[in-house]
Amino acid sequence: MNSTKGRRKVAPATTGDGGGDSSDKLDQLMLSSAICNGEDLGPFVRKAFASGRPEPLLQHLRHFARSKESEIEEVCKAHYQDFILAVDDLRSLLSDVESLKSALSDSNSKLQSVAGPLLATLESYVESQNVSNNIILALKSITFCIRLMELCSRANRHLSGDNFYMALRCVDSIETEFLDKTPSSTLQRMLEKKIPAIRSHIERKVSKEFGDWLVEIRVVSRNLGQLAIGQASASRQREEDLRMKQRQAEEQSRLSLRDCVYALNHEDDDGDGDGAFGGGGGSGGVADDAKDGYGNGGLRFDLTPLYRAYHINQTLGLEERFKQYYVENRRLQLTSDFQVSSMTPFLESHQTFFAQIAGFFIVEDRILRTGGGLISKLEVENLWETAVSKMCSVLEDQFSRMQTANHLLLIKDYVSLLGVTLRRYGYPVDALLDVLSKHRDKYHELLLSDCRKQIGEALAADKFEQMLMKKEYEYSMNVLSFQIQTSDIIPAFPYVAPFSSTVPDCCRIVRSFIEDSVSFMSYGGQLDFYGVVKKYLDRLLGEVLDGALLKLINTSVHGVSQAMQVAANMAVMERACDFYFRHAAQLSGIPLRMAERGRRQFPLNNARDAAEDMLSGLLKKKVDGFMTLLENVNWMADEPLQGGNEYVNEVIIYLETLVSTAQQILPAQVLRRVLQDVLSHISEVIVGALYGDSVKRFNVNAIMALDVDIRLLESFVDNLASLFSDGEANQLKTALAGSRQLINLLLSNHPENFLNPVIRERSYNALDYRRVMTISEKLRDPSDRLFGTFGTRGAKQNPKKKSLDALIKRLKDVS
C-alpha cells in the first residue's frame, strides 16, 4: 500500500526543456498513436536504428510509459473504496462460512450414520441385479442355442432320411435367423463351415440320384416305347377286325343273305391317350403324380428323382444351370440312341431303335407338361427335329440297302405305328411318312419280284390235273375264300374242281400281294391309295402273272388235256380277277361301285387267248389227222354217199368225245370259242381241199357228199344247243359258213347269182371270189366225162352249167 502511494506521488515526465524540434513531437505522436492502436512498432524501431539514433525512440517510449502510469494511478484511485468494501464483506462472509461448515459437518455425520446400512443394502441389490441380468442373458443364449441345436438336429434327420429339401429349408433358416445372432463364436465358426458343406453334400447326392435316373430312364424309355407302340398296334388290330366284320357284313348283304345275325360287341379300351402313360407331377408334391403308370398296371416310370433334383437346384439357386445340364444330358442320350449297330441287322434292331426314341419323347412330353418349366417347348421341338432328321437318314440308308419286300414292310409298319404313337403327343411325323412314301415304288418292285418268283414256282409245280378236295374246309380255303365258285350250293365231297392246284396257289399269291400293298400304303399319310394299289395290281396281273402263264403255255403244254386244263384255269382266274379288285377296294376302304367303275378289260387276256389258241391248235392238229381221210374221197363219184364221208364221221366222234370231257371243266363260252375255231378250221380244210392242187376236178356227186358231211357237222352243232344260249349256238353255226356257202353255191341252179351284190352279201358273204372261180372251174358235169360229148352232140346245154360258166367268165374278168 505504501509503495503504491509513493508511486502515485511521482510526476509525469515532461517533454524536455522545450529544445526539441517539431519533428520529434511528430514522431512521438505517431508512436503514441501506434501503441494505442496496437499496431506493430517494428517500423519505428528499424527507423530509429537505421538513422543511428535509438535514444529518441527510447525516450519517447519512456515518456509514454510515464503517461500511462499516471492514468493507471487515477483509475486505482477511483476504485479503491469499492475494493475496501468488498474486502470487508468477505471478512464477514468468512465467519458465516465457518458456522455453515460446522453445521454441514454435523449433518454429514448424521447422514453417514443413517445411510451406511442403506448403501450396503443398495450395493447388495445392484450386485444381485447384475447377477440376474447375467442369468437372463445366459438363459436367452441357452434358449437360442437350444433352438439352433434343434434346427441342426432336424436338418441332420432330414439329411439322414434324404429329405434334402427340408434339410435345405432348415439350413436356410439357420443361416438367415441364427448365424449372425449366435452367441458362441465357436458355434458360429462351425456353422459357417458346415452350411456350405451341407449344401455341397446335398448337391452331390441329388446329382448322383439324377445321374442314376438318367441311366434308368433309358431302359424305362425303351420299354415304355415298346408298350406304347404295342398299344397302338393293338388299337390298329381292333380297327382291322372291325373293318373285317364290316366287309363280311357287306359281302353277306351283296349275296342277299337274309339270315344274318347282328350282335354288338363291347370291348374295354385300354386307354390310348395320355392317361395310358405315367409321368411326373409339378415341382411340389410329385411323389403321387410322378408315379402314375399305365392304366392296367402296366409299366410305370418315376420322375420323382428328376423333379426333386430340379426343385433342390431351384432352392440352391442353381435352376438355370440344372436346366442346361438336363437338356445337354438328354441331348447326349438321344444322340447315343441314334447309334445303329453294324453288328446286328437293322431288321432285328429296328424295333428297339424306334421304341427307344418313342419312349424318349413320351417322357419328354410328360416333363414338358408337368415339369414346371424344366424344359421348354422350343427345346423339345429342337430335340424332335434332330430325331426326325436322324430317323429319316437312317431309314433312307437302310431302305436303300434292303432287297426284300417283307423287310421293308415290317419296318414301314413299325415306323407308321411310331408315327401314330407320337402323333398323339403332338409331335409332327410328316417327314417320316414322306420317307415311307418315297420308297413306295421300290417296295412294290421288290414285291413284284417276290411274287414273280412265287408264281413261277407255283406254275412249275402244276401237274395239269383237276384238284381234288375231300373236306369242306379245303373247299372253303381254295374256292370260297377267293369267290371263284360257280354256285352258292356247297358240293358233295370228295369234290373234283374244274381247275388245277395252280389256281388257288396263284390266288393266294395275288391276295397276299394286295394285302401287303394295302398294308404298306395304309397309315402312310395318304387316305385314298386305291389308285396306287390298283396300279401295281394291274402290273402284277398284266405283266407278272400273265407273262408267267404265257411262258407256261408256250413251254410246258404239250397235250390236249393239258391245254384244256390251262384253258379251264384261265376261265376260273377270270372270276378270281373280279375278286382281286373287290378285295383291293375293300381293303382300301372305297365303295365297290367305284372299283367296278374303274375296272378295265380282263388283265390276263394274253394268257387266256394263248391258252385257247393252244387248245384250238392242238385240237386242229388232232382234227387234221382225221381230215387227211379227205384223200380217200371219190371226187368223181357216180352217185352221192348217203352216210357221209369217212373223215367226217371220225371227226364227229372225236368232237363228241371232246365235248363230253370239256364240258366238265370248260365254261360254255370257252368251249364255244374253241369249238367255233375248230369247226372254222374244218370248214377251211374242206374248202382248201376243193381249192388245192390235190383235187383236179370233182363232180356234183362229190359236192353232194360234202353237203352230207356238212349237214352232219351242223347236226353235231345243233345237238350242243343245250350247252349254249341261242345266240352262242347261232354264232357256233357260223363257223361252218365258208364250206356251207360254197356247197350251196355249187349245188345252186343259178350260181351266177353270186355276182349279185345283194345276194352275195346275204348268202355268200364268207366266200372269196378267187377261190370260187378256181373251185368252180374244177366242177365237171357228168356229161363232161371222156367221150361223153359223142352221145350228147346236138343236145341242149344244161342251164346250171351255162350259169356256172357265166360265173366263171365274169369272175375271170374281175380278177
From TrEMBL:
Pfam families: EXOC6_Sec15_N (PF20651), Sec15_C (PF04091). Residues 1-10 have a biased composition (Basic residues). Residues 60-229 form the Exocyst complex component EXOC6/Sec15 N-terminal domain. Keywords: Cytoplasm, Exocytosis, Transport. It comes from the Eukaryota. One of its GO terms (biological process) is pollen germination. GO terms for cellular component: cytosol; exocyst; membrane. Residues 432-778 form the Exocyst complex subunit EXOC6/Sec15 C-terminal domain. Residues 1-24 are annotated as: Disordered. It is found in: Cytoplasm, Cytosol. PANTHER family: EXOCYST COMPLEX COMPONENT SEC15B, SEC15. Belongs to the SEC15 family. Component of the exocyst complex involved in the docking of exocytic vesicles with fusion sites on the plasma membrane during regulated or polarized secretion. Involved in polarized cell growth and organ morphogenesis. During cytokinesis, involved in cell plate initiation, cell plate maturation and formation of new primary cell wall. This is Exocyst complex component. It comes from Cephalotus follicularis. The lineage of its organism: Eukaryota, Viridiplantae, Streptophyta, Embryophyta, Tracheophyta.
